[in-house]
Amino acid sequence: MTSGHTSPEIFPFVEARHKEAGLHPVTALKESSGFIFNRIWAAIKREVLAVLAEGVSTPEVIDGIWREQYSSPIGPCAMMDGVGLDTVEHIEQHYVDERGLPPKSLQWLQKNFIEPGKLGLKSDKGGLYAPPAPGSRTKILFLNLGLGEPLGEKSLSEIMTGGEILSITAEDRASKPIALVRNQAMPDGIDACDGRMYWTNMGNPSANDGTVLSAKLDGSDVQTVIPSGKVHTPKQLHIDQEAKKVYFCDREGLRVMRSNLDGSEHETLIQLGDWESEPDKVAVQSNWPVGITVSRKSNKFMWSQKGGSKASDGTIYAASLDLPAGSTASDRKDVEVIQENLPECIDLEMDDEAGVLYWTSRGELPLGNTLNKKQITGEAPKAEKALGRQIVSSLVLS
């Protein structure tokens, strides 16, 4: 938007730069108190507040209508709680002062929410929505690999150790992720058990310096579960909640491993080669174990060996949780193929109740860049007949 004095030649240049960055620029034709959509959105918020102030409806009903009508994951009341009702009040006060709008809805907001400190998600008093009951919120834990910084602004070492463990509350869809732990060496897999979270750090993929760490769910009390040198490049991590065991794949280490939650009884379950004496095996990506999950009902663990990025040589395997008598991790006879000829199969997740295995494939379209599922126990649905699996979702880039 112009300031009223901006040279007109500036706008085509700025629009072109935005498009190069993958954005969709929209230029206001003249100076305005508020950008184009901000003004439209302000009118929506203002009318929502009026509906609430007059007792015509509730936040739950308004947001429900909005989500259904516009196929949106979040409604205007939840968005205002996410932004902060004090911020909403500040914006509305500006419009009231500048345009002489009726202050009735603003006064209702100030009296019922701003003055008692009910500011939304930033307040433990709630906002348009009541505060959630203690322990009722669902915390989602996820990882930032940390490779988004351009070289030149940070050193390579800083970038390689710039990973983060992040959290967000599922119910607070408008809130921003919170960094619980910083300065991690390429974190890759995460799970939680008994009030603690556990994650893998790949480290430098060309070095034998991976680790498995744990911390309380608020990021405090970070502890080492598997130290550097004991695992090469740990990837997905899964916790058997019943047995209190941590399972993880070691990609360049060519191993599938597990341990107790404190790192004791660290053992190798699958050994596909010796990364130190057999570098040729390490070079073959179909030997790289990446994803892992556990089925207590079938007493098996399952893992993926991803295969090449532009090949269909990935495979998902399964084996018993208990090593067969007389077998070693290198020659166990109970290994079975769950699915083969996959385009770079990565992370696994087992729905034990339904007997369904889910996994991601990162390879080439149309079968790669997909979320897949397969019936492991029980009768397979007809939808699996063609591929031996179902493609649940596909990401298509244009």
Describe the structure.
Helix 4 (76-83) crosses helix 5 (85-99). The chain is an alpha+beta fold. The model has no long low-confidence stretch (mean pLDDT 92). The strands form 5 sheets. A 4-stranded antiparallel β-sheet has the order 4-5-6-7, with no helix packed on it. Helices cover 21% and strands 30% of the residues. Strand 8 and strand 9 form a beta hairpin.
Second-tier CATH architecture of the largest domain: 6 Propeller
What is the fold named in CATH at topology level of the largest domain? Answer: Neuraminidase
Number of helices: 8
Compute the average pLDDT: 92
CATH superfamily of the largest domain: TolB, C-terminal domain
Could you give the order of strands across the largest sheet? 4-5-6-7
- Our measurement of the CA-to-CA distance between the termini, rounded to an integer number of angstroms, reads 29 Å
The rounded Rg comes to: 26 Å
Q: Largest sheet, described in full? A: 4 strands, antiparallel
Coarse morphology: elongated
What fraction of the residues are assigned to beta strands by DSSP?
Answer: 25-35%
CATH class of the largest domain: Mainly Beta
Distinctive features:
398 residues, alpha+beta, N-(1-d-carboxylethyl)-l-norvaline Dehydrogenase, domain 2, Neuraminidase, 2 domains, four-stranded antiparallel sheet, 21% helix, elongated
Describe the secondary structure blueprint for this structure.
Layout lengths: L9 H11 L15 H18 L5 H12 L5 H8 L1 H15 L4 H11 L24 E6 L11 H5 L2 E7 L8 E7 L2 E7 L2 E6 L9 E6 L6 E4 L7 E7 L4 E6 L4 E6 L6 E5 L7 H4 L6 E7 L4 E6 L8 E7 L15 E7 L2 E7 L4 E6 L8 E6 L14 E5 L4
Antiparallel strand pairs: 1-2, 2-3, 4-5, 5-6, 6-7, 8-9, 9-10, 10-11, 12-13, 13-14, 14-15, 16-17, 17-18, 18-19
Helix pairs in contact: 2-6, 4-5, 5-6
